[in-house]
Amino acid sequence: MESKTVTTTTLLKKKQKGEKITVLTAYDYPTAKLLDEAGLDIALVGDSLGQVVLGYDSTLPVTLEDMVHHTKAVVRGTRRAMVVADMPFMSYQAGPNEAVANAGYLIQEAAAISHQTEDRKPVTETITIAVKLEGGEHMVSTIVRIVEAGIPVMGHLGMLPMSATRFGGARVHGKTKSEAERILRDAKELEEAGVFAIVLELVPKDLAKQVTDAISVPTIGIGAGPHCDGHVLVTSDLLGLYGAPFKHVKQYADLSGTILQAFKEYAEDVRTGKFPGEEHSF
Ligand code: KIV
């Protein structure tokens, strides 16, 4: 496996060579460590942590401090993968000044992690930490300001979880001609604004291909078919840790079942005196 840290240039080269970019969400140190060890390119600290970790109904209650807290844990577990942190609801919508200050705060806090290798030598290559924000054309001036501040920005188009209620809930975007045209136009504008990649969430696969072919920066799909330059899943969905899987999810494990069984066995062992045994005692 490659040992060099993943940068925005690494991702661009992957697109140019037709190599797929691999992305999963991570919200904590152990998951980030395993994701990094497995050779994934990007650990996305998604604001989906609102639902899958904090138990909210949506991403809206997630705060900047929540994102700082979880991003720090993910950075601690990462040696090679790029870490992308979602800017939470209302941390960038009020305008470019507030957005650049909040993006700067998030990056500064996350970067202030003293990395040490297992043998206690400091890591020589620093990992890339970036932010992601949702929205098209109307976010251009905000993205330009954050990029100008030296912070890599990932865009997010298609179904935008923060504005889902405005569009009648989570649904596929870009089925109509006008919606498809808008998404394509937005992607070009985001590229122009300086994003290094764009997440396409819940869009028809032919539109995802059209966008992928039309822009030079990588597209990262979720529920966007096979033609994107890379793919992302919410790790809790992939592991079977959070409710019934959506159509776009491939579930690779049933950790809920495994954990439930382990908890039940443990409780039973404690109740019946099987645990702790002699072998666990001092
Ligand atoms: O918050 C998140 O996990 C995301 C992915 C769905 C792309 O934004």
Structure description:
This protein has 282 residues and is α/β, with parallel strands linked by helices. The protein contains ten helices and eight strands. The protein has helices at residues 8-17, 29-37, 49-52, 64-76, 96-111, 140-148, 177-193, 205-214, 235-238, 255-272, and strands spanning 21-25, 42-45, 82-86, 129-132, 153-158, 197-201, 219-222, 230-233. It has an eight-stranded parallel β-barrel with strand order 1-2-3-4-5-6-7-8, surrounded by seven helices. Helix 4 packs parallel to helix 5. The longest helix has 18 residues, at 255-272. The radius of gyration is 20 Å and the shape is globular. It starts with 7 loop residues before the first helix and ends in a 10-residue tail after the last helix. The site of 3-methyl-2-oxobutanoic acid has 11 residues, from strand 6. Residues 25, 44, 46-48, 86, 199, 201, 222, 232, 234 line the site of 3-methyl-2-oxobutanoic acid.
